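Hi all, posting the design record for the shared folder.

TITLE: backbone redesign
STEP: 1 of 1
STRUCTURE INPUT:
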């Protein structure tokens, strides 16, 4: 199990570094794409190892958190990488998983809230579980809407990418800066700086969602889509060829007309 713990720690460190670079880099640029890919891969490692380690912790913990991290980063990364605006099998499976996951988390939170005093003494608190479960249900309902509509606009696709990747980044920062303060120097434990660092991804999420939704970013409300681009180019080529074939015939008809006509 020690091997999984070291892999988990390494994945977390890479996720924090890569997520910071991706957040700071120019969006859509080479650095952003490379750092985003590294962040997604490291978060998957982090989530999978967390799910494996959690049941063997003392006291035993739930593997739900690791599954949730994998879900958000996988769907967020795919939203940017998928060049078709159509839904796929993965989105349908992810939708079913996160809806069940959200219901289970909320049920656990309600159980803790209604339990006799002293039955559940450790974290997480019932309110935190209900909030996380609600976020999972919100994500699942977004997936369900996407699956039923079978398509999404460029702005919707970009918003989906932003909020899911930022929330996955928050899982990493919150887990480290708030959940692992015992490994940090004594001087910074409980410092407001740790709370700022933990919640910074949520501030970035709010900033970019407002910019995408209300400021016309990206320009022209368009994210390049090869399918639609090829269709447009095909239509333009047909129109060009039609004009090229018709023009000589029209010119010949005009030249053969008599002056009386």
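Okay, here is what came back for every position:
SEQUENCE:
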């Amino acid at each position: 199990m020690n091997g999984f713990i070291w892999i988990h720690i390494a994945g977390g460190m890479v996720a924090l570094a890569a997520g910071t670079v991706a957040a700071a880099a120019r969006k859509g640029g080479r650095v952003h794409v490379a750092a985003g890919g590294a962040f997604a891969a490291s978060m998957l490692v982090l989530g999978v190892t967390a799910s494996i380690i959690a049941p063997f912790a003392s006291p035993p913990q739930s593997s739900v958190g690791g599954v949730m991290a994998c879900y958000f980063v996988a769907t967020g990364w795919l939203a940017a990488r998928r060049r078709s605006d159509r839904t796929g099998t993965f989105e349908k499976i992810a939708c079913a998983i996160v809806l069940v996951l959200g219901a289970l988390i909320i049920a656990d939170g309600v159980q803790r809230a209604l339990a006799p005093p002293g039955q559940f003494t450790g974290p997480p608190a019932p309110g935190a579980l209900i909030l996380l479960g609600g976020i999972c249900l919100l994500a699942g309902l977004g997936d369900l809407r996407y699956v039923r509509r079978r398509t999404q606009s460029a702005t919707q696709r970009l918003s989906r990418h932003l909020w899911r990747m930022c929330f996955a980044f928050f899982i990493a920062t919150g887990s480290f800066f708030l959940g692992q303060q015992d490994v940090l120097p004594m001087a910074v434990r409980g410092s407001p700086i740790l709370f700022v660092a933990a919640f910074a991804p949520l501030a970035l999420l709010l900033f970019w969602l407002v910019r995408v939704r209300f400021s016309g970013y990206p320009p022209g409300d368009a994210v390049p889509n090869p399918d639609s681009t090829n269709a447009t180019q095909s239509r333009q080529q047909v129109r060009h060829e039609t004009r090229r074939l018709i023009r000589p015939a029209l010119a010949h008809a005009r030249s053969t007309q008599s002056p009386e006509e």
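COMMENT: The chain is about 75% helix and 0% strand.
Let me know if anyone wants the other runs.
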